């Protein structure tokens, strides 16, 4: 595979193709590179974006949980991946692959889904009791008992969330990194920066980062319930700024550092967006977002924007 830097005579191309996964056919938007002689190829990154579109459709059709939900269930009960695998009857490597994006079989997916319910999961713990020491069993039992009811994701992954569960910790990480790169940022500008971070990452990898749903509002794409979202971010402060003219705006400041939970590809996407927009004003970014297909087709109804529209972005 080659990297994503184009050589003279090369260009990106996109076309609708069909792929077979587990004996079922799914259409997806295939992204690749073509040279002046008509030779086509893809990069590793493009392969990921192409295949994850197929995986996403298969998961939706068969009700298979997404990686965020699989790890979220485990974290809800405060268990390690190794212990979760043991309780559910999976191999440890197999379970870790599910959290990393491997698609479970339908039967294994149903087991994972059943584990959402606290009482059902406790029955799994009881069934695997013979494989644990008494001390370990009591420790795990206590963890499950203190868990706050059944596992319920804040938002169910869909094409409007980039097939991710909403994570305020990830949003806070993204916002903090943007602020550390380009300085304190007004909400109006941050709204568009988050949109491009999520949609560019979806275009390049087949899934978003934060799980935010964006609506097409008059001044461009805006996170749904943005006020509640920003006010809930750990380590981020909202401060009203008043200009000499009397106009005001809400500025976001990073007031404390927390551990990074973003992976290498996510960090790379944020760096790319900061480089693209660091010198643009909120108004200039808003005008740029008005040229995007996702905003144009949804602005009249102020509807949520599908992440599939990422493949029509004017910016890579």
List keywords for this structure.
alpha+beta, 8 strands, three-stranded antiparallel sheet, 3 domains, single chain, 316 residues, 15% strand, globular, 13 helices
Describe the structure.
The protein has 316 residues and is α+β, with helices and mostly antiparallel strands. It folds into three domains: 11-62, no CATH class; 67-146, no CATH class; 168-312, no CATH class. It has 13 helices and eight strands. It has a three-stranded antiparallel beta sheet with strand order 1-2-3, covered by helices on one side. A three-stranded antiparallel beta sheet has the order 4-8-7. A two-stranded antiparallel sheet has the order 5-6. Strand 1 (11-21) and strand 2 form a beta hairpin. The two termini are 19 Å apart.
Order of helices and strands: EEEHHHHHHHHEHEEHEEHHH
DSSP strand content = 15-25%
Number of helices: 13
The largest β sheet comes out as: 3 strands, antiparallel
Rounded mean pLDDT score: 92
Spans of at least 5 consecutive residues with low confidence: none
Quickly give the structural class.
Answer: alpha+beta
Q: What separation lies between the terminal Cα atoms?
A: 19 Å
| Tally of separate domains | 3
Oligomer class: single chain
Shape summary: globular
Instruction: Tally the beta strands.
Output: 8
Tell me the helix content: 40-55%
**Rg (CA only):** 22 Å
């Amino acid at each position: 595979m080659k990297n994503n830097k184009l050589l003279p005579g090369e260009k990106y191309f996109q076309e609708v193709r069909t792929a077979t996964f587990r004996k079922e056919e799914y259409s997806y938007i295939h992204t690749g590179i073509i040279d002046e002689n008509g030779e086509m190829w893809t990069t590793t990154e493009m392969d990921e974006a192409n295949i994850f579109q197929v995986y996403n459709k298969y998961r939706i059709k068969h009700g298979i949980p997404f990686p965020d939900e699989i790890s979220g269930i485990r974290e809800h009960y405060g268990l390690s991946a190794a212990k979760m695998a043991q309780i559910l009857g999976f191999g440890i490597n197999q379970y870790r692959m599910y959290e990393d994006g491997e698609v479970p079989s339908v039967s294994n997916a149903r087991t994972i889904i059943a584990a959402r319910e606290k009482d059902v999961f406790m029955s799994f713990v009881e069934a695997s009791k013979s494989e644990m020491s008494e001390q370990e069993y009591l420790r795990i039992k206590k963890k499950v008992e203190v868990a706050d009811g059944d596992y319920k994701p804040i938002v169910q992954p869909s094409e409007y969330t980039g097939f991710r569960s909403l994570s305020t910790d990830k949003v806070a990480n993204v916002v903090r990194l943007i602020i550390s790169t380009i300085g304190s940022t007004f909400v109006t500008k941050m709204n568009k920066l988050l949109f491009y971070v999520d949609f560019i990452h979806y275009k390049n990898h087949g899934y978003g980062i934060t799980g935010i749903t964006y609506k097409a509002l008059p001044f461009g794409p805006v996170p749904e319930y943005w006020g509640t979202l920003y006010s809930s971010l750990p380590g981020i402060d909202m401060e009203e700024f008043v200009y000499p003219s009397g106009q005001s705006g809400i500025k976001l400041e990073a007031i404390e550092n927390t551990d990074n939970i973003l992976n290498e590809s996510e960090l790379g996407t944020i760096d790319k967006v900061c480089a693209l927009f660091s010198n643009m004003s909120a108004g200039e970014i808003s005008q740029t977002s008005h040229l995007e297909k996702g905003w144009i087709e949804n602005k009249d109804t102020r509807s949520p924007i599908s992440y599939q529209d990422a493949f029509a972005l004017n910016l890579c």
